[in-house]
Amino acid sequence: MSLVERLCEAKAVSRGLLSYLPAEVEQLTLRTDPIDYARYSYSVWFRHMTVLYAFGLRQYPRAIAELGPGPSLGVGLTALISGTENYYALDVSRGVDTDKEVAVFDSIVEMLKTRQPIPAFKEFPRLQPQLERYDFPDFLFEPGRLEAMLDRSRLLTLRKALVNPDSESIIRYVAPWEQSTVSNSSLDLVLSQAVMERVDDLPLVYGTIASWLRPGGYTSHSIDFAEPRTSLHWNGNWAHPDWLWALMRGRRSSWGSRLPHSTHAKVIQAEGLQLVADDVVNDDSGLPRQRLARRYHDLCDADLAIRAAFLVAVKPQ
After folding, report:
1. Comparing C-alpha atoms, which of 61, 91, 50, 74 is closest to residue 218?
2. Is 245:216 a contact under the CB 8 Å cutoff?
3. Tens of pLDDT, residues 12-30
4. 96, 151, 209, 255: most buried, per Cβ within 10 A?
5. What number of CA atoms fall less than 13 Å from residue 10's CA on the CB side?
6. What is the end-to-end Cα distance of the chain in Å, rounded?
7. What are phi and psi of 259, to 5 degrees?
8. What are the tens digits of pLDDT across the range 65-123?
9. This prediction's pTM
10. For residues 303 and 36, what is the distance between their CA atoms, to the nearest angstrom?
């Protein structure tokens, strides 16, 4: 791709590239409807839990951390309302007004009370992981368990923790995430949704996750390698030379790392975690190898075609 082509393409996408949010969430941000956030978050949580259940997580996680919650704590709220006891929301900067999250909380409560099915492809066509079925996941709950979690006094306690969090709260929202006080071997689950593709130092983050997890704990990550806001092609982020990519990033604290799928898989295992699920979405419609920046000419054929992946790893007992 010539310099003129790169600059023209950068100009064409510049109006939309100032956000690092997943496309699904970016649209929700424009609407700012608590029900939209609630439905998105509910779908994310139960998609992760459905896949994790299939790969051995049979007890509801008591303590979890979410990396990069973005504009809403809805994923963690869904987890807490349905049975989790402690939730860490860890981000690079604060993007959530917890006072406004009460409406999201209430919407999630109603969805759980009525056992709403998991919002599926029609509503969130790009959301990963994709499931075979989207019925309400009753198999996650022992008989009577969900009803106990929806007890009025318990919900009031969660609401109070949401509005008035403190250092001992069951909800701990920390940004920047490096200031968190998560204890080693204290978490049952660490998850993220369209976040890990923004991480430059994968060994640091995956290594930290490994230290936080108790033996037998799980980590799950939906990773989107596409950058539709920086190119007219899904893999156009690999076509930009480093200087142009740095110019696009500017002073943003979070930006695409452009690390391919195989790097994530290798680092996860190098940090002592056992990869138990690696579900990829292939897309051969992107730019061919010869149109990528020189540093990406050596990408393996598999990496070149992987647009998204859902990775699950467990910390060995």
Report:
1. 61
2. no
3. 333 333 233 455 554 554 3
4. 209
5. 19
6. 49
7. -85, 135
8. 999 999 999 999 999 999 999 999 999 998 888 878 999 999 999 999 999 999 999 99
9. 0.89
10. 33
Alpha-carbon distance 192 to 222, whole Å? 6
Q: Which of 141, 298, 161, 291 is nearest to 231 (CA)?
A: 291
β-bridge mates for residue 27, sequence order = none
- Nearest-angstrom CA–CA distance, 180 and 142: 32
SS3 69: coil
Maximum Cα–Cα distance across the chain:
63
- Reported as type and span, the H/E element at residue 274 is strand 274-282
Integer Cα distance of 106 and 305 in angstroms: 41
| Per-residue tokens: 224 | 């989107």
User: Region 129-145: what's the mean pLDDT?
Assistant: 97
pLDDT at 5 (0 to 100): 45
- DSSP track, 26-59: HHHHHH--HHHHHHHHHHHHHHHHHHHHHTT--S
- Check residue 138 and report its DSSP letter: G
* Nearest Cα to Cα of residue 99 among 168, 30, 162, 171: 162
269 conformational bin, left if phi > 0, alpha if psi -120 to 50, beta if neither: alpha
Cα(28)–Cα(282) distance, integer angstroms: 26
**β-pair partners for 243:** none
Query: Quick check: helix, strand or coil at residue 198?
Result: helix
Instruction: Copy the structure tokens of residue 294.
Output: 């020189």
CB 90 within 8 A of CB 98: no
**Per-residue model confidence as pLDDT tens digits over 185-202:** 999 999 999 999 999 999
Task: Give the H or E element holding residue 305.
Answer: helix 301-305
E strand or H helix that includes residue 101: helix 101-113
